[in-house]
């Protein structure tokens, strides 16, 4: 499909490396922030580490650990790169093939292809709005029935992949951070019930098109949660007392810090722009309260991270015990994990 629609490669490369959005409004901004959360999912930050822990590596041999780290890095890069390429193809095909198309135009194309879903698109001159559900139908009308089923299988596979990563991450968090040693059945039942129940309510009491809006909202929510995953990861991987010879160097500490700062700025810009577009005083007040709570927690994590990384002048009062907790010493006989 990417080859068929023949997108402008120059514009594609410019869009990849130069962040801009011409004539964009709040919906487009929401999608842009959602892409950040969808590609860099916060729970995957923990999942990758937990899966690495399950590999058979002689952690007493530093050379073997260093070699394993190299291949873990390559493995993660390949997975993220493939995901990145798929996202580029999907966004490019939809943008090039369906941008500025009207409902009447798509209605005619679907009618000519004898699609049973032609009635989804009213025969008027309003701009076409494509979501996850209508997207598959439009692909089927433009590229043949096979594209419709390929899209459906792809969406199903993506949903299953997301479900599995969420379940695995929930298990590792409950075992590690919360120290709850439940049976697998109980863990899966709890985590899946929390995740699936809202979706079931939407699917039962609303139509299928509302699932797309909820998906966009969840992606934005994951982007907002990224600092809660990235800051602790940067903290612990930068501590020599925990990582020994494998602690982050100055470059990775600075790069990681700047990345976290960039994500926080993007999130807050989106929140401000989104709330301002609602034109409601009550929502302004609610968003302001939530923003203060959110920023306070991010600032607290950042403060502990800086203290753990050596900025001892920031420590005061009871933070001595906190920094001692962050600087947990491992016995020499136990290699870094």
UniProtKB/TrEMBL annotation:
<feature type="transmembrane region" description="Helical">
    <location>
        <begin position="185"/>
        <end position="205"/>
    </location>
</feature>
<protein>
    <submittedName>
        <fullName>NRAM2 protein</fullName>
    </submittedName>
</protein>
<keyword id="KW-0406">Ion transport</keyword>
<dbReference type="GO" id="GO:0015099">
    <property type="term" value="F:nickel cation transmembrane transporter activity"/>
</dbReference>
<dbReference type="GO" id="GO:0005384">
    <property type="term" value="F:manganese ion transmembrane transporter activity"/>
</dbReference>
<feature type="transmembrane region" description="Helical">
    <location>
        <begin position="251"/>
        <end position="275"/>
    </location>
</feature>
<keyword id="KW-0410">Iron transport</keyword>
<feature type="transmembrane region" description="Helical">
    <location>
        <begin position="137"/>
        <end position="158"/>
    </location>
</feature>
<keyword id="KW-0472">Membrane</keyword>
<dbReference type="GO" id="GO:0046870">
    <property type="term" value="F:cadmium ion binding"/>
</dbReference>
<feature type="transmembrane region" description="Helical">
    <location>
        <begin position="281"/>
        <end position="314"/>
    </location>
</feature>
<dbReference type="InterPro" id="IPR001046">
    <property type="entry name" value="NRAMP_fam"/>
</dbReference>
<dbReference type="GO" id="GO:0015086">
    <property type="term" value="F:cadmium ion transmembrane transporter activity"/>
</dbReference>
<dbReference type="GO" id="GO:0015094">
    <property type="term" value="F:lead ion transmembrane transporter activity"/>
</dbReference>
<keyword id="KW-1133">Transmembrane helix</keyword>
<keyword id="KW-0408">Iron</keyword>
<keyword id="KW-0458">Lysosome</keyword>
<dbReference type="GO" id="GO:0031902">
    <property type="term" value="C:late endosome membrane"/>
</dbReference>
<dbReference type="GO" id="GO:0005886">
    <property type="term" value="C:plasma membrane"/>
</dbReference>
<feature type="transmembrane region" description="Helical">
    <location>
        <begin position="72"/>
        <end position="95"/>
    </location>
</feature>
<keyword id="KW-0813">Transport</keyword>
<keyword id="KW-0812">Transmembrane</keyword>
<feature type="transmembrane region" description="Helical">
    <location>
        <begin position="217"/>
        <end position="239"/>
    </location>
</feature>
<comment type="similarity">
    <text>Belongs to the NRAMP family.</text>
</comment>
<dbReference type="GO" id="GO:0005765">
    <property type="term" value="C:lysosomal membrane"/>
</dbReference>
<dbReference type="GO" id="GO:0015087">
    <property type="term" value="F:cobalt ion transmembrane transporter activity"/>
</dbReference>
<dbReference type="Pfam" id="PF01566">
    <property type="entry name" value="Nramp"/>
</dbReference>
<dbReference type="GO" id="GO:0015093">
    <property type="term" value="F:ferrous iron transmembrane transporter activity"/>
</dbReference>
